[in-house]
Amino acid sequence: MDGENRIILNVGGIRYETYKATLKKIPATRLSRLTEALANYDPVLNEYFFDRHPGVFAQVLNYYRTGKLHYPTNVCGPLFEEELEFWGLDSNQVEPCCWSTYSIHRDTQNTLAILDKLDIDSEKPSEEEIARIFGYEESYLAGELGPWQRIKPKVWALFDEPSSSPSAKMISGTSVFFICVSVLCFCLKTHPDLRVTEPYNILNFTINDTAVATLWHENEQPHVAFFYIELLCNVWFTIELLVRSVVAPNIIEFVKSPVNIIDFIATLSFYMDVVVELAVVRRKIDKSDILEFISIVKILRLFKLTRHSPGLKILVHTFKASAKELTLLVFFLVLGIVIFASLVYYAEKSQDNPDNQFKSIPLGLWWAIVTMTTVGYGDMAPKTYLGMFVGALCALAGVLTIALPVPVIVSNFSMFYSHTQVSY
């Protein structure tokens, strides 16, 4: 009777032996419906043959015996899922002890999907792929590409694909050079030693028709050399922006790109400054501080470097992938800041304290954020023992709050970077 109940399974050349009753424990699966009428049954050897992965099947058969499904660490996650699907089992039945190891492949697949969208592969796309990007695939296959259809992808590759040719690398290097020079000029022209003093206005005071004094209103302006350097840089930026907009595969996507919006505003702000300066010289209008504030956008040109640096692209997408962790971090920081600002305010009021710096809870918010982020300017500090105790708790809470999400962000960056290196 025991021999009649036993069944032999040959999986990938390895024979497994078990009882029919064991395979009936999990109904509606492939092994629970075995009959001798199946094509993979060998009546001579009295066994069922399956050309599947034997390592995974060992865990599958163990699941029938014990009711616990474990993940074999020597196989890839997608292969394990494929095998479970063949045997009719649910991958969600994996035991909790193996779930974290098993689910890593899903994060890896998401990472690879994101990296595919980054377009940081150094391999040159084929002509057919380029035609597909520009929507010329039918014309390309029919051999009916016009002159503009042939030139447009080449110009686009020069300005948007630095790895496509030596000329594209040269243009990319030129763009990076002008970005660095523009940002450097923006910073240096605020230095007092690099500014010149010019007379701005003359005021003549008279008393009883008698001239009393003549006052010169002086205005510090950047050296004129900075204007010509910025002019040269912005001429390049203008040409580059116009060319890229003309040869862009999708003009809507080009306009919606945050980097292109920053580039347009930064370039436009320079020409607005020129117009305002000319008006000021002619005494038509006063120079507005708002325009000077808008010129801060020029510093954001550094984000254009993401088009030329795969590392910066990885960093940006690391923050995107870690959005949940960053949101959680900000939420807990805000929560802690409000709580400890309120506590330190009432703690300092609870005792006689003539040097109390916490006159209100809003002032305590500044102290709480500086303390929780471990910056510690020292401009505000509790003076009472109860306030010091609250400050100690605030510092400890800040360290723990910041330390918890950081490993997740570092792990995401490491995973992005490692997969990028493999793709190269």
From TrEMBL:
Predominant subcellular localization, coarse grouping: membrane
Protein name: BTB domain-containing protein
Keyword Membrane belongs to the record: yes
All residue ranges annotated as the BTB domain in the record: 5-105
Coiled coil: none
Taxonomic source organism: Pieris brassicae (White butterfly)
An annotated GO BP: sleep
Location of this chain's protein in the cell: Membrane
One of the record's GO cellular component terms: postsynaptic membrane
Membrane topology reported for the UniProt record: Multi-pass membrane protein
GO MF term list: delayed rectifier potassium channel activity
InterPro entries cross-referenced by the UniProt entry: BTB/POZ_dom, Ion_trans_dom, K_chnl_volt-dep_Kv, K_chnl_volt-dep_Kv3, SKP1/BTB/POZ_sf, T1-type_BTB, VG_K_chnl, Volt_channel_dom_sf
Entry's family note: Belongs to the potassium channel family. C (Shaw) (TC 1.A.1.2) subfamily. Shaw sub-subfamily.
Record-annotated membrane-spanning stretches: 326-347, 359-378, 385-410
Pfam families: BTB_2, Ion_trans
Gene3D superfamilies: 1.10.287.70, Potassium Channel Kv1.1, Chain A, Voltage-gated potassium channels. Chain C
